[in-house]
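seq:
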Amino acid sequence: MKISILGAGMMGSALAFPAAENGHDVHIIGTCLDDGIIDGYIKTGKHEKFCRPFPANVHFHYFKDWKEAVKGSAFVIGGVSSFGVDWFLEEILTQLDPKIPVLSVTKGLRATEDGSLMSYPGYWIGELAKRGIHRDICAIGGPCTSYELVFMDPTEVGFCGKDNAALKMMKEAMQRPYYHISLTNDVMGLESAVALKNAYAMAVTLAVGLNIRWHGEDEPQHYNSQAGTFTQAVRETHMLMQMQGGSFESECIGLGDLYVTIFSGRTRRCGSDRSPRRHHAGEPRDHPCDGTGHPPQGRTRSGGPQEFPAADAHCRDS
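struct:
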């Protein structure tokens, strides 16, 4: 079976491993921004952040050759970021043979004019239909970091879509003893569950940054504040799922995605680095509890205490 991956980013590239290990002929095709990455792949046969080289049955192509490279593919994996949603629509989906199924790794939601939220597969399907092109688009959601997938760390994800035959074919092509795939028709639910995990993960990791700011780099992690923001993230994810009509299973996969995002990658670094100032050895501690024995009430930007009325109201109501 031939499988093409359009987009040479980390996640798209990582998916080449389970596909190739199952004996398939895998083709990674860079976008118009990926020529430098493809240069490196051709030269070294390896992604600089992956622990092992690509299998021998993975091949690399520049974007200029994409139409030829995808010919004969059983399906195409779309590996673009959320910034490339419209580019993927205009440059790929409008020109790709409608008979070739598509599996997207792009996460996010799109706001409509009436304020409702639409999944990226739903947006693409709707825009293609306006042009007389009819196809279903499947998507991947769930807790998976690219480099750990390459490391063969046990991973659980969901594939969603309306075409059950395509979903089954994709699962059989991609599943490995370490890459576990569940199938669902709940596209809106799964895509909604994983869409906001970066924002919520950053909120949790801000608590990590505050711990560093207040106590220094050598202080062990404090988990109460992280758990508090995680609780709010779970609460809001559940409300979003109710609003979008998502299933409980999709919500669970989304919370797993939130968990892995908190502990890895750029979101954790960004959140933990957002505190205005880090404490250095020998400097006085900037913490309202220092020397008082009393817990902090919070701080404003100027350093004064601040109450938390929303939290107080929630406690009173409960």
